[in-house]
Amino acid sequence: MNTKYLSIYNDIVGKIENGIYEINDKLPSEHILMKEYNVSRDTIRKALNILEQNGYIQKTKGKGSFVLDINKFNFPVSGVVSFKELTDKIGKDSETKVESLKCIFPRTSMAKSLELNPEDKVWEVIRARTLDKEKIILDKDYVAQKFVENLTEEICKDSLYNYIENELGLKIAYSKKEITVQMATEEDKKYLDMKNFDMIVVVKSYTYLDDTSLFQYTESRHRPDKFVFVDFARRH
After folding, report:
1. Residue 200: which of 210, 187, 212, 209 has the closest Cα?
2. In this structure, which topology does domain 73-230 adopt according to CATH?
3. Residues of the chain with CATH 3.40.1410.10
4. Rounded to whole angstroms, how far apart are CA atoms 1 and 23?
5. Measured between alpha carbons, how far is 39 from 44 in angstroms, rounded to an integer?
6. 130-152 pLDDT, tens digit each
7. pTM value surpassing 0.90
8. Cys-Cys with 116: which of 85, 111, 182, 210 at CB 3.0–4.6 Å?
9. How far is CA 69 from the centre of its chain?
10. pLDDT in tens, 189-221
11. What is the CATH number of domain 4-67?
């Protein structure tokens, strides 16, 4: 059975998703919510904390809680997170379609980027990602075969990182990322539901194992209306 704070959380989520609370609206104060739901302040705060963690509200000290745009998904810039992990966390319907899976000799620039020798091959994996029935991410992954000997469409459709870590026993440690905004290509328009958008947000990632080996280069192309790229920074 749901505890009280989860019931309150679900009720407020319903009000946000149904437009009763709109974007940038201020939620009622903790005191008013306590009276409305007939619960303690601690219960209300637990519900508000989960709302904030799941991207529904922003709590501002001394001002209150404000409704965020739930049509945009928080994408952690500084984290190394798979698409499956991200969608599981935010609880959205998702689907991955493997558009292409090939083991190839990379072009010279790609080989150099991945610090490969001329005889080394890479897995080229192109996947279209669907959220809430819209294709909004095109992921182009290049994985060094010397670290991942075999890949199947089934693995790529599920979770590449899950396979690497839990089946191959490798530990993914960190990545370097570069974010740019570019004109959408014909490939973007072919695989994504671009609507009237002619720009695309491109996140390039170089991902390393815990022994500092560079094993993957990813170009993740996002439709610009669906994501907020977030980071957490602390001075000093």
Report:
1. 187
2. Chorismate lyase (3.40.1410)
3. 73-230
4. 31
5. 7
6. 987 889 999 999 999 999 999 99
7. no
8. 111
9. 16
10. 999 999 888 899 999 999 999 999 999 999 999
11. 1.10.10.10
